[in-house]
Amino acid sequence: MKKIALKVIGLTVLASALTGCIGSNAITGKVMKFNVEVVDNRYARAGVNFLLAPVYGITTAADYVVFNSLEFWTGKNPISGSPHIFDSKVDTHFEMNDELDPSLTDAPIGPISNTRTIETGEMVQIDENTVQMDILYQNGDTATLTGIKEGQDVRFYMDGTLVSQTTISELESFHS
Question: What are the tens digits of pLDDT across the range 22-51?
Fold first, then answer.
């Protein structure tokens, strides 16, 4: 049981860290700024860049694993204070925020306090278009995740609140 718990914790940490692969790379940006400000000659800058290659490796790793992950989960980079790129306001191809609970459209602020470990989850097929999972968390809390197929769309609800929407073809693509 201890080995399983360690594997679950390890995979959770890894998954959390991998969310940070995209971000503002603030520390690496500071090294680049230093690189450019050292000298005014492009060839000398290239030489400084070559000498700083090991530093870039360390700062990139720190950005990817630590600072970009913090940026993703808190909504802003702790070094630069800039908002996460995923929170940028741009013209998008698919609109979904207007159908979600407002708490699911922005990054959580501050430390993540709603991390709960699932003790059991029991899946039940209600009818040909509905599946339901009753979840029991280790702290005793319960929740119900429901998936409802409507034509080619599937909507997922957590305790009656819409949390995600996809299509049958998107779900089938995960089996390939």
Answer: 788 888 889 999 999 999 888 888 899 899
> How far is residue 25 from each of residues 17, 19, 21, 33, measured CA to CA in Å?
14, 13, 9, 12
- Whole-number Å distance between alpha carbons of 62 and 71: 12
Reduced to 3 states (helix: H, G, I; strand: E, B; else coil), residue 61 is helix
Percent of the chain as helix, strand, coil, to the nearest 5: 45, 25, 30
Helices 26-38 and 53-62: crossing angle in degrees, nearest 10, is 160
Domain ranges of the chain: 1-87, 118-174
Q: Residue 92 — φ and ψ, nearest 5°?
A: -110, 160
Which pTM does this prediction carry? 0.45
Count CB atoms within 10 A of the CB of residue 20. Answer: 20
